[in-house]
Amino acid sequence: MDERSARRLRLQSKMKEAGIDVCVITQNVDLYYFIGSMQTGYLFIPAEGEPVYFVRRSFVRAREEADVAVEELGSMRGFGSRLAEAFPRQFRKRDGEKTVVAAEYDVLPVQLFQRLEGALPGARWVDGSMLIREIRMIKSAAEIIAIRESARVIDMAYEAALSALKEGMPEVGLMAVVESVIRHNGHMGLMRVRGYNQEIITGMIGAGAAAATPTYFDGPAGGEGLGPASPQSSGWRPIGTGEPILIDIGCCIGGYVIDQTRTAVIGELPDDLRQAYELSETVLRETEARLMPGTICEELYTAALEQVRAAGLSDHFMGFGADQVKFLGHGIGLEIDELPVLARGFRYALEPGMVIAIEPKFTFPGRGVVGIENTYAITETGFEKLTVSREGIAVVPRYGSRVVQQ
Amino acid sequence: MDERSARRLRLQSKMKEAGIDVCVITQNVDLYYFIGSMQTGYLFIPAEGEPVYFVRRSFVRAREEADVAVEELGSMRGFGSRLAEAFPRQFRKRDGEKTVVAAEYDVLPVQLFQRLEGALPGARWVDGSMLIREIRMIKSAAEIIAIRESARVIDMAYEAALSALKEGMPEVGLMAVVESVIRHNGHMGLMRVRGYNQEIITGMIGAGAAAATPTYFDGPAGGEGLGPASPQSSGWRPIGTGEPILIDIGCCIGGYVIDQTRTAVIGELPDDLRQAYELSETVLRETEARLMPGTICEELYTAALEQVRAAGLSDHFMGFGADQVKFLGHGIGLEIDELPVLARGFRYALEPGMVIAIEPKFTFPGRGVVGIENTYAITETGFEKLTVSREGIAVVPRYGSRVVQQ
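Above: the input entities. Below: the structure tokens describing the complete assembly.
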């Protein structure tokens, strides 16, 4: 069976378990995952039977791309009765019994939801987002191949960044170097993120104090950004000597995202920051040692907390003070904020096919952020490290290969 | 009075007219517009009295940025009673009377909405998105200055693209040139868009048939894109000789977006496409002639339709066949899809401070898209053209300045 049919069957089987009659999928990434097309429309997947993709635009393109039946959406008036015809088993219930319809409550805007509610007065609506996210959590071999390709490209960009890194250049200038490499290699221009209001372009290159500036962004390092209208990630701050340069970057090739972090310095890092960096590598190695099917996600997080506490760096771990985030890593695939999360409350046991970015980092307000991040696929016997960039602090000599003018 | 206080007063006055007691604002761009900060949280603006910004993260940064009272959000349990204390006039109603609360239904995800509903059981919820979008429709002098700066930067990028344009290079390679210029000049990395599932990085550079490929994107030209996981905008297609190259690009500096289109060619365009391009300039000039306070938005669209019909190009205008879009232009500012829209049903009279991208384009399936797009500010007496790039078809000689190897 082809991969997308298998995904839809997994969804249908979960729907039956959960007592859901129909799933309506509207978000571009979820659409792509289930049918290979992200044109504007509604995908209806019944618990039993064949799905129908009702498309507003572009119908022509949806028919080329999608591997399910495609119909023109047309007017919302009468849409309810079209659905009843298309899915008689689901929508023709006995008196008083309602059709249970699930939607992606985590991303679906209220306006669109109310339009759907209006078209289906006989439905009882439930949140289907966890169900979809849990299916997407387990990657196929083909998905992992796609992430490997993103890993290869981001490594080229990392090396390009190191070769371009010069004292005094702004963070955003170094980011532009990274972006040029990945774009020429087919990066789509941003890393998709599911969370409301979250924006990620290429991650964050942050130098010294700027990297330690807290932000709304749901990650351990925020960044000063370009100003209050874009208050995160890289900004205008000139990169200085002897301060940590956090190079937290990723790209999205063929729809799949990679996420990695390295720490660089022009000249030399102060001893305590170097030691904190080394602790981040130690935490990563310890985490790797437990990275195998059966390990409970939250235990990876609590073990890391314990290690960091023993080293006396708890206050600096994954942000500082009130702005600390409470996780060690996150699933990644078509989006950067997938399941599982390595955090308290996530009781998933690791399974082959999970892909997780693990990112121990230490924040020093006024001084910077150090750390490392690799993306891993869980295998039958342990893990495959998908990230290929060399580890360790990347040291760029102060004057490098530049001719020093007198 | 400072600008943001004035914006909030305009909102409060509209709220009173509409019978809304409280507005809760959650979207990053709306937050930035009203209080200068886009940290994660809820901004409550009462119809009368002072707003409070309840922030989850980063509280520290919100306090630096926002010009209203900032409080830590804390637990959602008890949030209702905190609100009742903060806004006694709004939340302590007589028996049976509900507090009318407006939210951004066009962007707010259902999950977050239901969390807010749960915290405020005594509220009657209404959609506040049009109200907010109508306030944002009228730009201040400072906002127009910001858009002028984006216009200056995108013009540099356009010239860089022309200088880099060579036969055989992929569309995405030319786009990478544009992106490098704008990023080095402070572009935030994407052009923000409000519409669900809509993604715009830098617009679209599309060559020949690729530009005419329809997509889900709500604009006249779609593009082949990089594949079904990113099925719009620039792709791998090599740019050829004698075909239209649509350079529809923008950037976002200091939060404000510009949007412009130019048509280029290596060698020469076929006569009919050249004539279609000339018609797009004619339509633009005719539209400019009506661009002044008092003109009704939809009349600009219907007048353009009439002009195009007279020239016999209706089938090609703003897309082709079923994939035609039904507008001539769109408001632009912090987001690319603002009010007003130049389309049927938009009865707004033009007002000083409106900023509109006007984009007559003609699509020829299998051959390409030609057209032009400028962004204009409406003034007391007419308009200011914010776009500064030179008009006309940009002709690049076939071999240009390259040394032809034997």
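Note for the figure: Residues 141-164 of chain B form the longest helix (24 residues).
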